[in-house]
Amino acid sequence: MTGAGVAVLVVLVALLLGTGFLLGRRTARPVRPSDVGTPVEHATFETLHTASLAAPPLRAGLTEESARRSARRLRSLLGTDALCLTDRERVLVWDGAGHHHGKDVMGHIEELLEGGRGTAFDSGCADLDCPLRWAVAVPLTVENRVLGALVAYAPRESAVLARAAGEVARWVCVQLELAELDRSRTQLIEAEIKALRAQISPHFIFNSLAAIASFVRTDPEQARELLLEFADFTRYSFRRHGEFTTLADELHSIDQYLALVRARFGKRLSVTLQVAPEVLPVALPFLCLQPLVENAVKHGLEGASTPPREQPADTSFRITISALDAGSEAEVVIEDNGSGMDPDRLRRILRGEATTSTGIGLLNVDERLRQVYGEGYGLVIETGIGAGMKITLRLPKYRAGVHGS
After folding, report:
1. Residue 196: pLDDT band by 50, 70, 90 thresholds?
2. E strands within 266-400?
3. Facing residues of 210 across strands?
4. What percent of the chain has pLDDT over 70?
């Protein structure tokens, strides 16, 4: 082999080694998620990711703010030149080219808003440089009510875009339906809390104020303390913000309530509290424990067959309240030695077949616990006629969306 041939061979070997080294370096790099999967799988992932980003704003309902925050994602899903969202009266947002078309949109979709059927139309644009020549509009409906429309614009008529716009609009409608359910749930909870507040009877308020008045001359300092307890108790019970509270706040309100009851019944009421400090920050539905304690007092003391003043001095009604650490949960037990309840009557109450104030309180709390935490978190009640009542409930220390305020 000549010297020139040897030189060429050396160069080829070097190139092969270099290529092998570079390939080795590339294959040795960490694999990125974007390098995995077929183009179809990658496109599917991108579509789902875009849809997930558009969903949260729409869960607030069809508003100018939610439309503004979701329009760019929705246009990306359709791959169209421009997109707008409307309510029944105006364009909420325009995203993409050709903003001047916004003034004509509502005129094109009048029949859609009335009849609820999609439509397609020529843009009728006189601007030769404008890419928007054709549009498809799809109604946004919730429970057969047309809330507005999704309108997608393109350079030319497209059956594919028409079908895609229909599917995206249906997906938007699902998000809006979920928003309606969220609003209905909030309204239901507010109604339930109002029902519980209504149970703080004028009778209790009158008796509390009468007990405070009885101390005004004999013990003014005690009267002042009780008046402050009464003010704090009513302020907490009738507060207007927050669906949830903390175990610390709920127990504090119960303590204030019992202070007012003790002012009336004195030594006839015995209260024992056992609370683990680590469970105090645990969040729970507002006015969840208080109705249970009020129920115990109402049927143990106020509902006793013998009037309080005629009961023997050594007659003691006992309430024990414990809130203990149970691993990932807090376990709360409210127990009394009152008159108890017929188990059959209790079952009817928890099935919603009783309309007494006792039934409203127990059923309300039981339903709200199950609604927030799941079916496994309702009240566990042990009772019998003349055997008192023991109510146990479990509260997860953490649950997404449950935060004390």
Report:
1. low
2. 269-275, 283-285, 317-326, 329-336, 380-383, 389-396
3. none
4. 75
